[in-house]
Write a structure and sequence with these properties.
Distance between the termini: 31 Å
Strand order of the largest sheet: 2-10-9-4-5
Shape: globular
CATH topology of the largest domain: Coagulation Factor XIII, Chain A, domain 1
CATH class of the largest domain: Mainly Beta
Radius of gyration: 24 Å
Structural class: mainly beta
Number of strands: 35
Number of domains: 3
Number of helices: 3
Largest sheet: 5 strands, mixed
Strand content: 35-45%
Length: 620
């Protein structure tokens, strides 16, 4: 029943105005020689759609380089064999609302050697050079793309012959892939495909010899594992990729001479030659991914009741019995990196591991991190003292994240003040309310990407930290036994059977002044279950009032439809199978002190079913 109702809703929406709110498109490319080069082939808007609309017909010629017919790019991008090119994704403009966080899925990159500099794309002769599906270190490719603010970094094989090529990218969004398009034309996997025109230099001239080579369309069919895939069966969609096929579709090709094409996750780059006075991780920090623009962190709140399996966490790394000594103060003039953190959630995520969510309000010399001011961007290591190891489920507003033992190594990004992630606890460490039973002690070290020194402060949200070396944190005592369940049960259904809409609101760390920005996570339950289009009372139009604020603006939202703000009210519609709603909000009437919103916010809720029926709304 749910599928047919969803299909009807989708068809009605398509009949009115094509829904391109969450779609993505390549706007240009960065090469070593030029930023924002216009070497992307031009595509034709599909009938009744937009240039950023997805492709669903896997047998269509649109699968080659986008909606046909495509035409030549404005220019050609020149890249050396073994070099990198960065493709710039966005929604309506480069790097804006890159893709909806609910549209999780893999990214694939293919090459085809051109017969000449003016030849059109052909069906045969494509070979895959890059694969990024889901990994425990980085999560889904699309979430990684959002965290990198639309930058997809592609490294060319070093043995690639010199000449002209088409570089083809393919993103497969899985939010409607629980049914094939042939079964329900309104749903199915969504493919975002485009091609760049590149000239490869540095290699020997000749014909590329890559295995395997495939024809497009035809490289993927409805029977290919991963085209039909349900990301909603247990657990969070952010973790469901552990069971997704890897590779998706054809294997990454091997070029003549035995050289495999590069792996999708960027390899670590050497630490700059000039060391910083502050200690750096033993493992070099990865190379940065330039990522200008406003960050788009995904929503991260407790997962549904039936979690998806999570791969085993890495083998525990020994934790020193005593903390390492704080580094010596940095030289005068070194930028002050001040991180105010809190843990906003802890929840099950499969056998043997729980997940906790860490939020960080980051400032550099009192302002948000920036590539060209406030001291520059940095490579940082946060150590989770008290935990033997951590794993990474998902991170945001950071680049090149990885877990090493009980450390999180990452790089700050331009205009990324709201840093965070969801981290796997060691097997056997339970949740005690919204925090782990073992609350970690956080310390931080690092250096500028340029190699210069920094002052590294890290402290709990709400506490001040003096400028100086890393500030160790002693967490508040954790009760030996879990907190008792609330004495007041969930409200009984309202008169006439109106469904109970219960919203748990949690405002995360804040940053900035005039306006103050912050993240808000909403966990929505309808009669104790997640919202559904055909059960639990139906979907609803809700109005959430921010008591304590006079004005509210939503700069980004996720897992909600038809969002708008007026005064201090956020209006939105719930979506099928989407219990975790959130957004980034700003207000000129609120302040931010050490990562805490002032005055403290409370919330009230009103609304009705989309069908017009009454609901019983409440906020906890």
């Amino acid at each position: 029943m749910r599928t047919s109702l969803l299909g009807l809703v989708a068809l009605v929406a398509l009949a009115a105005v094509p829904d391109a709110n969450a779609h993505t498109f390549i706007f240009g490319a960065n090469t070593p020689a030029k930023a924002n080069a216009q070497c992307i082939r031009k595509i034709t808007n599909p009938a009744g759609g937009f240039r950023n609309s997805p492709i669903k017909d896997l047998a269509s010629q649109d699968m080659v380089c986008g909606f046909s017919p495509t035409s030549a790019a404005t220019e050609t991008c020149t890249v050396a064999a073994g070099g990198t090119i960065e493709l710039i994704y966005g929604h309506n403009n480069a790097q804006d609302d890159v893709i909806d966080p609910s549209h999780v899925g893999p990214c694939e990159v293919y090459l085809q050697q051109r017969a000449s500099a003016t030849a059109a794309p052909a069906n045969a002769g494509w070979f895959k050079i890059q694969e990024e599906t889901w990994t425990q270190a980085t999560g889904w490719c699309t979430i990684h793309l959002i965290a990198n603010k639309g930058i997809l970094k592609v490294t060319l094989p070093s043995s690639l012959p010199a000449g002209n090529y088409f570089l083809r990218t393919e993103i497969n969004a899985l939010h409607e892939a629980d049914v094939l398009t042939s079964t329900n034309p309104a749903r199915g996997a969504q493919f975002y495909v485009q091609c760049a025109e590149i000239t490869v230099t540095g290699g020997a001239a000749g014909t590329v010899a890559a295995t395997p080579q495939v024809s497009i369309p035809g490289h993927i069919t409805p029977a290919t594992p991963g085209v039909l895939f349900n990301i909603y069966t247990g657990g969070s969609i952010l973790d469901k990729g552990a069971t997704y096929p890897n590779p998706f579709g054809p294997a990454v090709a091997t070029l003549a001479g035995g050289q495999a094409a590069p792996v999708p996750v960027p390899a670590p780059a050497p630490v700059p030659a000039t060391p910083a006075p502050a200690p750096v991780p033993a493992t070099p920090a990865p190379a940065p991914a330039p990522v200008p623009a406003t960050p788009a962190p995904p929503a991260c709140v407790p997962a549904p009741a039936t979690p998806a399996p999570v791969p085993a966490t890495p083998a525990p790394a020994p934790v020193p019995a005593t903390p390492a000594p704080a580094p010596a103060p940095a030289p005068a003039g070194a930028p002050v990196y001040d991180f105010a953190w809190d843990i906003s959630a802890c929840y099950p995520s499969g056998t043997g591991a729980n997940i906790f969510q860490l939020n960080i309000a980051a400032t550099v010399n009192g302002e948000q991190p920036a590539a060209d001011a406030n001291g520059g961007l940095a490579a940082l290591t946060i150590t989770f003292g008290g935990l033997a190891s951590i794993g990474i489920s998902n991170t945001w507003s950071s680049a090149n994240s990885k877990a090493v033992g009980n450390q999180w190594q990452f790089e700050t990004i331009d205009d990324g003040p709201n840093i965070g992630g969801q981290f796997l606890l060691p097997a056997g460490v339970a949740c005690n309310g919204k925090v782990p039973a073992t609350v970690p002690t956080l310390t931080m070290t690092g250096q500028l990407l340029s190699g210069g020194a920094i002052v590294a402060n890290i402290h709990p949200k709400g506490q001040a930290a003096g400028q100086g070396a890393t500030v160790p944190v002693t967490p508040a005592p954790v009760p030996a036994t879990p907190a008792p369940a609330p004495a007041t049960p969930a409200p009984a259904p309202a008169a006439g059977g109106a469904p109970n809409y219960v919203v748990k609101a949690s405002a995360g760390s804040c940053w900035g002044t005039g306006p103050t920005s912050f993240v808000l996570n909403l966990q929505i339950a309808v009669n104790g279950m997640q919202p559904a289009g055909d059960a639990n009372g139906g979907l609803a139009a809700l109005q959430l009032t921010f008591n304590g604020a006079q004005d509210i603006t939503a700069t980004q939202t996720w897992n909600a439809a038809n969002t708008k703000t007026a005064g201090n009210v956020f209006s939105f519609e719930t979506q099928d199978d989407q219990p975790n709603v959130g957004g980034i909000f700003s207000s000129n009437s609120l302040g931010c002190a050490n990562g805490v919103i002032t005055p403290a916010l409370t919330f009230s809720l009103a609304g009705q079913l989309l069908s017009g029926g009454a609901i019983n709304p409440s906020v906890v």
